[in-house]
Design the sequence.
């Protein structure tokens, strides 16, 4: 029997349980979804239905061989936002021990392709780069609205929170920095105070030197399974050279990130099937883009198991697949080798 191991996450100082024996538990495997059609007459994100979405915020025109007016990527306000645009500052209100604030912010939808049946691992690298260009362009605009956080993210599959089948991701801008992001920032700042170096740069260098958890290496970005991964096959894409905000990424970094993300998602699908997943692109809080102690990173987390009572009660994640094994299996898939 393989022994469980407790590992401390260097980025949060949380403890994670790596429990290989948990992988042998009986699991319910959901039935595969039927193939999507190329277009859906009832989908508000398909071409020809542009009037069914709120007013367009950003567009990547289609390539010259497409009809005039065609688009490759669109960004529109979310019709059902978690935060909404408002006027004036988000003032805190206090009622005894309880504090609240106006839900001012923004929530946008990135419609990633005109094709209803498209997915990120199916496209060319340039098509994925167009999606990341939307993240970068909107992040540059949204971070100028004041303090807070801009978070691009993607939900894939109903179990991961997808409500519409058409390929899309989202961007939420909050007026505050959530506790988890403040923790990431504070841990990185403490490390910088102690050692005079960026925690993210040092961990990335250590992972690449070790190699056991490395998934792919490029000139500008790398992918690895974190030492204290909170979920099976969790993988990060990180810049190899320090940069605090993805909004400031140059074209070469963006292009290579897109290529690595596409291959990583293709490898995950090749290895596990069309599993639900979430990814989030985490950058420094607004106004902290020049900091020397934080680095942007993309966290990809497959949703292979539900959170149970132990995790809820203890706050500790239980990961049944050691990151070393996950990285080796991903490296061994046809879509993804050790170099891109």
Sequence:
């Amino acid at each position: 029997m393989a022994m469980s191991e407790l590992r401390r996450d260097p980025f949060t100082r949380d403890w994670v349980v790596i429990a290989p024996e948990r992988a042998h538990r009986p699991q319910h495997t959901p039935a595969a979804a039927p193939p999507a059609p190329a277009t859906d007459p009832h989908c508000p994100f398909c071409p020809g239905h542009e009037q069914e979405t709120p007013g367009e915020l950003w567009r990547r025109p289609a390539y010259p061989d497409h009809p005039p007016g065609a688009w490759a990527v669109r960004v529109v306000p979310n019709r059902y936002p978690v935060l909404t645009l408002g006027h004036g500052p988000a003032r805190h209100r206090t009622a005894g021990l309880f504090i609240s604030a106006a839900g001012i912010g923004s929530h946008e939808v990135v419609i990633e392709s005109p094709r209803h049946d498209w997915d990120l691992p199916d496209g060319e690298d340039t098509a994925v780069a167009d999606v990341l260009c939307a993240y970068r362009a909107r992040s540059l605009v949204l971070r100028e609205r004041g303090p807070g956080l801009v978070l691009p993210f993607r939900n894939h599959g109903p179990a991961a929170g997808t409500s519409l089948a058409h390929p899309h991701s989202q961007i939420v801008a909050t007026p505050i920095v959530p506790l988890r992001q403040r923790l990431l920032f504070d841990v990185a700042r403490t490390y910088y105070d102690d050692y005079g170096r960026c925690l993210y740069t040092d961990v990335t260098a250590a992972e690449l030197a070790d190699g056991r958890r490395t998934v792919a290496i490029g000139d500008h970005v790398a992918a690895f399974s974190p030492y204290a991964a909170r979920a099976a096959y969790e993988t990060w894409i990180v810049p190899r050279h320090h940069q605090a905000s993805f909004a400031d990424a140059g074209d070469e970094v963006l292009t290579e990130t897109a290529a690595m993300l596409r291959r990583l998602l293709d490898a995950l699908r090749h290895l596990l099937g069309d599993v639900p997943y979430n990814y989030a692109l985490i950058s420094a809080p607004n106004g902290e883009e020049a900091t020397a102690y934080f680095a942007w990173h993309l966290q990809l987390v497959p949703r292979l198991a539900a959170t149970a009572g132990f995790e809820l009660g203890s706050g500790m994640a239980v990961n049944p697949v050691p990151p070393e094994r996950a990285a080796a299996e991903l490296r061994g898939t046809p879509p993804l080798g050790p170099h891109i």
In short: The CA atoms of residues 134 and 196 lie 34 Å apart. The first strand starts at residue 5 and ends at 8. The chain is about 25% helix and 20% strand. The chain has one domain: 56-87+104-331.
